[in-house]
Amino acid sequence: MYDDALAWAGSVLGSRVVSADPLDGGMTSTMLALRDEAGTVSVLRLMTNEPWRSHGAELSTREREAQLVLVNTPVPAPVSLGLDAEGAATGVAAHLMSRLPGSPLVEVTDAHLDAMADLLATIHAVRPAEPFRTFQSWAWEAKWVVPARSRHPDSWRRAFEVLASPAPAYEPTFLHRDFGHRNLLWADGAITGVVDWVETSTGPAWLDAAHAASNLAVMFDAEPARAFVEKWAATSGTAPVRHWLVMDAVGYLPPPGRPPMFGDPAQQQRLDEWLGLVVDGLS
Question: Residues 245, 184, 228, 273: is their CA dihedral positive or negative?
C-alpha cells in the first residue's frame, strides 16, 4: 500500500526497508515503524489524514526544521533523516526520522508529572536562530457553542467571554505546541523522547502547559491535570494564566457540524469538568 513511500525511505537510508509496522496514535498521519536490511530502525510520517493532508508540506517541513534546531540540545527529539514535503516520491508529504526508545504512558504518577514539567522547561529554554511561526489558537470563534450535554453551560459561556477579551501580554517562547503525555516516550520512569513537532510555534509558555493539563484531564481526570498546573507554576516561577488554560480547553470543542473530538462520553464529561475548573481559576 505504501510501496512508493517505503522505496523512498530505503533510498534515504541507503538500505532497503524490510518491515513497516503501524504505530499507535497519529491523528494527523499514518506513522510507520521501519526496519531496513542493515537493521536500522526509523519512523516514517505520511500525512494521509485530512484536513492535515492538505497542509502536509507545511506541517512536515515545520517538524523537520524543529528537529534540526533540537539536534544539539538536551531535548530528546527524533533526528530528521529525510523529507519529501510535496510528496513527489511518496504521494503525500512524508518525513523520515530516527526512532527513539520507550513507550507512551498508560497511567500517570506524581513523578511523571515532575518529569514532564522539567522537560517542558528544557524545551522552552531552546532559542532558535529564527523564531517559528506565532502560535495559532485552536479555539476559534465558530467553536464557541456550549456542548449539548454539558453540566456546566454557564462555565462555557464565561469561557467564551474570556476568549473574547484581549489576550494577556506574554514573553515569546519556543513551544512544542502539542505538548502532553501522548507525545512523550518513557522507559524506566524517565522520558526518552518527545515526538510530533508539526505544530512547533512561538507563543506563551503557559499554552504548552495548558495543553498538557487538558490532555491529562481528558484522558485521566482533573487531579493529575490540576497537579501538573501546580508543578508548572512552581517550575516556571509564574502563576497560572487563565486565558491560556481556557483557550486550550475550548480548543477541544468540535467545529460546527462535526462530532465531538472525543467519541467516549466519559472523556467528553471530563473535558466539561476541566473547563469548569479552569474558568473558575482552579480554586
Answer: positive
C-alpha to C-alpha distance for 97 and 12, rounded to whole angstroms: 10
Query: What cell was used for 109?
Result: 504518577
The set of long-range contacts for 10-15, using a CB threshold of 8 Å and a minimum separation of 24, is: 10/36, 12/81, 12/82, 12/96, 13/38, 13/40, 13/42, 13/81, 13/96, 14/38, 15/40
Please state, in angstroms and rounded to a whole number, the distance separating the CA atoms of residues 200 and 101.
22
C-alpha cell at 37: 536490511
Distance CA 102, CA 148 (A): 39
Residue 103 domain flag: no
Closest CA relative to residue 248, chosen from 236, 261, 265 = 261
Phi/psi for 49 (5° steps) reads -105, 130
pLDDT tens figures, 18-69:
999 999 867 789 999 999 999 999 999 999 988 888 889 999 999 999 999 9
In a domain, residue 18? The reply is: yes
Residue with cell 516520491: 89
Q: In this structure, how many other beta carbons lie within 10 angstroms of the beta carbon of residue 124?
A: 19
Same domain? 125 vs 249: yes
Question: What pLDDT does residue 283 have?
Answer: 53
Q: Is the distance from CB of 15 to CB of 101 less than 8 angstroms? A: no
In which residue are the cell numbers 497519529 written? 26
Amino acid code (one letter) for 242: R
Identify whether residues 129 and 19 lie together within a single domain: no
**Residue 57 burial (C-beta neighbours within 10 Å; 0-12, 13-18, 19+):** middle
Going by the DSSP 8-state scheme, the letter that residue 103 receives in this structure is B
Q: Which residue has the cell 508540506?
A: 57
Cis peptide before 224 (omega within 30 of 0): no
